[in-house]
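Why does residue order matter? Because the sequence determines the fold. Keep that principle in mind as you read this record.
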Amino acid sequence: MSDPILVAKTKENEYFLLPQMANRHGVITGATGTGKTVTLQRIAEGFSKLGVPVFMADIKGDLTGVTQAGGGNAKIDERNTLLGVTPAFQGFTATLWDVFGKQGSPLRATVSEMGPILLARLLDLNDTQEGVLAIAFKYADDNGMLLLDLKDLQSLMRWVGENAAELTTQYGNVSAASVGAIQRGLLQLDEQGGSIFFGEPAVKLDDFIQTVSGKGVLNLLAADQLINAPQLYSTFLLWLLSELFESLPEAGDLDKPKLVFFFDEAHLLFSDAPSALIEKVEQVVRLIRSKGVGVYFVTQNPADIPEKVLAQLGNRVQHALRAYTPQEQKGVKAAATSFRENPKIDTEKTITELGVGEVLISTLDEKGIPTVVDRAFVVPPEGHIGPITPEQRQQLMANSLVAGVYDTAVDRESAFEMLTAKAEAKAQEQAAAQAEIDAAKAAKEQAKAERAAARAPDSMWESIGKSAARSASSSIGRQIGNSIVRGVLGGIFGGGKKKGSWF
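Structure:
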């Protein structure tokens, strides 16, 4: 049995997270600046020491300090002294990832892997538009077209729009308005960096599940830029969680998880999410525990998480919440009621009184039953707290377990090339058919011209010549006729008077 992870402590009591219950999931909540990131780092270090790999998004860049040994921090020393802790400061092995490939190894996925459901969420499509997107994916599957990068999907939607009538007959209604909406969404996604994220080589999930010298590798996703595109950020993490669920085999009850997944800024996943998506998240969270994966949501308030999902999060760490407005007061009350009550403390009141690094904590015991909530201080991490230098980051990237594996993008033949060739072939066929039509038309016009030429009147000079010839002929005819007449008459009447005439 693996040793428990010490999360929080008072002078009298210690509060542990049991590894065999870690895949029952958990939640870390609290207002900004109350110490959630430090708590996350403490728990992640504990899993790493147990040989459990961890994946977590680094929103502010602070988590990279875990790769360096701690120490030299007066506040940390003071807290350790208060709690009676003798720290063993150390750094932890980490792999740095970055969707944009700047602050870590590129982290890509293919369009096909993302699928139409998550893409519809990413593009904020309505039901009708999602249906058209599903038709496009089905057409690609039926015709052996790989959808790898963003231009594959853009060219596919263009083809769908141009051949809507044919596709409507075979697959269902395809409206030009829906195709246009999808194309606009893809253009916006491209501007947010989607063309960098979608492509190959796609990340291999095995690269997230690695150990070095018996310690689990911490996978840190640089999210300081990614968080500026919240739809892309939340949908990407959900896709990653779904891929883990789909690809990992059933594991049953383990003495420790295979992987622990921290979903920071979890409210972005559920904000304005359609019910179908929330149901999918609920399903993944409920079933992925059997694959040996623990999921921990990090957000400001438990109210950010739907009740059906929250009910599955057995390990809970609550930092301070503020209660200045009626809405905040409602959130505090909801947070307090999510804990197993402790008669010794007023949970609702205590939540608003907690100091930085101080928490209300309740974890699952050996039987899977939540312990009563109690107040304690988070034990400081053993790694450095805060960001590392750019030089240290570059060194980590150069020595990474996946250094060079994903650096160069690959663009093999896929839907874009196939549809381009198909469009060119169609254009050539249309050009050849048009050429035949034009040739036939030209031949017809030429024959018509020849027939017209045969029936056409003579030219002016030809007319003048023929007229002159006719005039000359007529003149000659008249002269000959006159001569004959004169001759005949002359023969009869034209002789001179002869001497010795009768008269």
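Residues 488-503 have pLDDT under 50 and may be disordered.
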